[in-house]
């Protein structure tokens, strides 16, 4: 049989045509897979064939057809990823910043599920489609975490760190990924719960003092103190002394890591040329990176140890004095330890990622407490019903039983997730679902905020509604429709740690205090930080003197006289 001429329909970009002999092709599915393999079609099932305007739904129809066979992908002709044209030199920079969340939403509204922008030479695509996001996160022949110059993390790329800042195909990632996740896994994290309780309780005298002075305070600044102080103890075995007084300064390690994330965002958003300047932000970034290395090395040298013997990898976190002690002493099945050349970089990443995410998430959770009516009352009532008091050292098992708290945190992460730009890099030329053509080396960002607030996925996404998590619609959602810590091999390895820490802190803070927002100013986020954090949220606390009584099985208060009647 003579070869048949196929040609992809094209709306933008160059044509792709080829001749193919069908003698060895047994059915339509095999034909789709053959074409997909050779031309990088990510989902073969999306291919359809036609002759002129006549659909060809069987292999026999294709063989019998005369002339060119057209190909569509999910009913679409091939197309380039759309996006705004931009200005000379600066590209779309002033169309994106400073309000990148709002402006990117405008681009999604205009261009659809995926678009690309050029910020001073850095070209990235973003998607709010969970199907495309899942493809990006898959670590496959199509996409991988490869931190190329257009990637948002490129200015702080560090292969020795392995996790977060390294490429998947680099040997260091496999080495570090073997040792670090067990220290942050479910079993280890449950072991850290008592320290999380005590760290939160250390903040109470400071919050009490500010309440007595009728003083409002910036939420993010104190949540940064609280979360970094906790990470300092658990990771480094170091007391950062953040709550010795109201005005106790942040530890220098914390300040350096926070500044690095701010500078990295600025450099990454201004193009490759900016990173090569021998002064200003690029020079400051290099100096801070060296300072962090020196400080973490000093902390490693000073970290307490519970012994000197080797610890088996899966049990080491339960026996080590802190995560640094674990990383120094843990051994795999062959007796190998984490190489010294990876130790400092991996510790920097674990420490920095450990508190920057939780401080931002905690801040947004407090925003939720003071913004959405009834939220405090629901969480407080659940604590009462589960016999949690001011004296309770809250365990992971107790946290697992707090459904109202769990729904609240999920809904806050859906509406106000700190992480928003986990980029992945195309490993080959490909055709995405919808017919979008992607060139090798293209960085695609699954835009978490926009996925979580996509009206095509979520009913009334702007409405804060924790009860949506009880609905079948949400339970049956696409598995990449809610991915606050990304997904796949390169998802955040510390999500168990972050969630337990945040939930324990919220239990303690809600049980002890009633929270009120100070002022009527709309809360704004910082557009030039690596994570989404509120910058102008101020609150006041009022220490509780009365608590509600337990509810009966019918859901009514057993003793109305004990109810805290303030709006919560």
Number of domains: 2
- Please state the average pLDDT score: 94
What is the terminal separation in angstroms? 76 Å
Low-confidence stretches: 558-568
SS field, number of helical segments: 21
Number of strands: 18
Helix content: 40-55%
- The neighbouring-strand order within the major sheet is 2-1-5-3-4
- The CATH topology of the largest domain: Cytochrome p450
CATH class term of the largest domain: Mainly Alpha
Assembly annotation: single chain
Biased composition (Polar residues): 549-568
InterPro entries: Cyt_P450, Cyt_P450_E_grp-I, Cyt_P450_sf, Cytochrome_P450_monoxygenase
Organism: Exophiala oligosperma
Region (Disordered): 544-568
Task: Describe what this molecule looks like in 3D.
β3 and β4 form a beta hairpin. α15 crosses α18 (403-415) and α16 (375-385) packs antiparallel against α18. Strands 2-1-5-3-4 form a five-stranded mixed sheet. A five-stranded mixed sheet has the order 7-8-16-13-9. It folds into two domains: 4-80, Roll (Ubiquitin-like (UB roll)); 176-543, Cytochrome P450 (Cytochrome p450), CATH 1.10.630.10. The longest helix is centred in the middle third of the chain and has 32 residues, at 340-371. With 568 residues, it is an alpha+beta fold. The protein is globular. The protein contains 21 helices and 18 strands. Mean pLDDT is 94; it is low at 558-568.
